[in-house]
Amino acid sequence: MRLNLITGGLALGLALGLAPAAIAAAPPPAGRLAFDVTRNGADIGDHVFTFAGQGADFDVRVATEIAVRVPLIRTKVYSYEQQSREQWRHGQLVHLVSTTDNDGTAEAVDAPVSQLMPGSLWSADSVRATRLLNTIDGKTMRVQVADLGAERIEAGGRTIEAHHYRIAGDLDRDVWYDSDGYLARLTLVADDGSTVVYVRK
Collapsing DSSP states into helix, strand and coil, what is residue 157? Predict the structure, then answer.
């Protein structure tokens, strides 16, 4: 079984082109965004962003742990783990360090970054970009974004107002951001056709 889930992934892809105008981002005041991950309604793991720093200079640590098991016998048939660190200076991503184990396939990135938003998608500034950095392999993904408008969704244990966008191209995701511009929900269709949902705790 191979789901090829997340993060930054939350996929694979390569694109070339001129660098877009720089996009600045800022961390959430709480310093943390945590998500439950489900597949076809069943809990399969967690995805957590932890922010540290001041103002426009900060680091983001991203931890993802996913395990899909066979019902009843509880045998693990797919696993995904990623640990990454994004270094942001003056509101721009400048360096990415990432290690990923995608069901036994290892990937690693340790590289400087210039004028790209990460595919981790934690900030709504991501949907202003036409290229995103794949946090699994360090390659560049070309994307198109459709604005699907305001919606009410469940996040953080309550109903909130959010804005829905659909990302397509080298990365295919539906994302919802809260009124402050931080990721509240994400959905994707895995390689096996199952629906995977990230919902903020």
Answer: coil
Residue 108 CB contacts under 8 Å (≥ 6 apart), including other chains: 98, 99, 100
Report pLDDT digits (tens) over 34-80: 999 999 999 999 999 999 998 899 999 999 999 998 876 777 889 99
Tell me how far CA of residue 12 lies from CA of 8, 72, 162, 179, 180, in angstroms.
8, 32, 27, 29, 28
User: What is the sign of the dihedral through the CA atoms of 153, 169, 133 and 196?
Assistant: positive
For the whole model, what pTM was predicted? 0.87
Q: Which of 18, 24, 11, 4 is nearest to 139 (CA)?
A: 11
Number of H helices, E strands in the chain: 0, 13
Residue 9: per-residue pLDDT: 45
